[in-house]
Amino acid sequence: MAVENACLRCGAFFEKGSNYCTKCGAPVVNRCTDPGDLLNDPCGHICGFQDAFCSKCGSETTFKRAGLIRSPWKENKVLYQNKLDDMKWLLHPFFTKW
């Protein structure tokens, strides 16, 4: 079992509130890596110490992306219809003539 204040890569202890290990540069906070898009903010959820994927949106976590955690599965992000297509009707001449 990993110690929560120790870096997963090198084992060095880090101060609470740190984002990266000062010895090896590995992330010490396991955040969601979802970048967001035009209509949605980035997820940024802080995930559990052993999580390879975000429990809120299914994107990879910083630990998985840095190679600190392995998973035999690919990203499980839920695919959704592009919300810009839903708003395409706003480009109708009725709305753009004003």
Produce a short descriptive summary.
This protein is largely without helices or strands and 98 residues long. It has 3 helices and no strands.
Notes on the structure:
With 98 residues, the chain is largely without helices or strands. The chain is built from 3 helices and no strands.
Features:
single chain, 98 residues, little secondary structure
The overall number of domains is 1
- In terms of DSSP E residues, the strand content is under 5%
Q: Evaluate the radius of gyration.
A: 19 Å
Largest sheet: none
Number of strands: 0
Number of helices: 3
Task: Please tell me what the overall shape is.
Answer: elongated
- The overall pLDDT, averaged over residues, is 83
- String of helices and strands: HHH
Topology:
Elements: H1 62-65, H2 83-86, H3 93-96
